Amino acid sequence: MAKVKTFKTIFPAVSVPLNDDYSINEPEFRAYLRWIKTFYGKGMDGLVCNGHTGEITGLTRAERKRVVKICAEECGDVMTIISGVNCENTAESIEMAKEAKEAGA
Predict the structure, then answer these.
(1) Are the C-beta atoms of 59 and 50 separated by less than 8 Å?
(2) Annotated domain spans of the chain
(3) Cα(62)–Cα(78) distance, integer angstroms
(4) Alpha-carbon distance 33 to 105, whole Å?
(5) pTM here?
(6) Burial of 41: CB neighbours in 10 Å, binned 0-12, 13-18, 19+
(7) Nearest of 32, 34, 16, 13 to residue 24 by alpha carbon
(8) Alpha carbon of 52 to those of 14, 71, 79: distances in Å?
(9) DSSP classification of residue 80
């Protein structure tokens, strides 16, 4: 069954925790997302990742795709996942949007 997409609720911008070497701290990020998911149906029906909390410019394209994948794995069964796309040209923006969709946004 397809999720109903509604934008009448809160969609918080999530921040990605990093390790000392600036790699994604996946265990901490997953725990944070599971906590975010507890608010589903209580005024929060989705989330925004790879936004201007730093991820869109601070992470590589592959890391941003991984962020979407983690969000989808932890919350995508019920929540709508929106991913930011930051690019200087239309063609690459389209590619990045397709990658985000394939990863679960």
Answers:
(1) yes
(2) 26-103
(3) 24
(4) 14
(5) 0.86
(6) exposed
(7) 16
(8) 10, 16, 20
(9) E
Give the count of beta carbons closer than 10 Å to the beta carbon of residue 29: 21
| Joined tokens for residue 48 | 């925004």
Bridge partners of 48, per DSSP, are: 13, 82
Is the backbone of residue 65 left (phi > 0), alpha (psi -120 to 50) or beta?
A: alpha
Site of tokens 């989808």: 72
What does the pLDDT look like over 58-98, one tens digit per residue?
Answer: 888 899 999 999 999 999 999 999 998 888 889 988 998 89
- To the nearest 10°, report the CA torsion of 90, 103, 51, 94: 10
Q: First-to-last CA distance in the chain?
A: 16
17 in the Ramachandran plot: left (φ > 0), alpha (ψ -120 to 50) or beta? beta
Residues 65 and 99 sit within 8 Å (Cβ to Cβ): yes
What is the spatial distance between Cα 17 and Cα 79, in angstroms, rounded to a whole number? 20
Beta strands in the chain (DSSP E): 46-49, 80-83
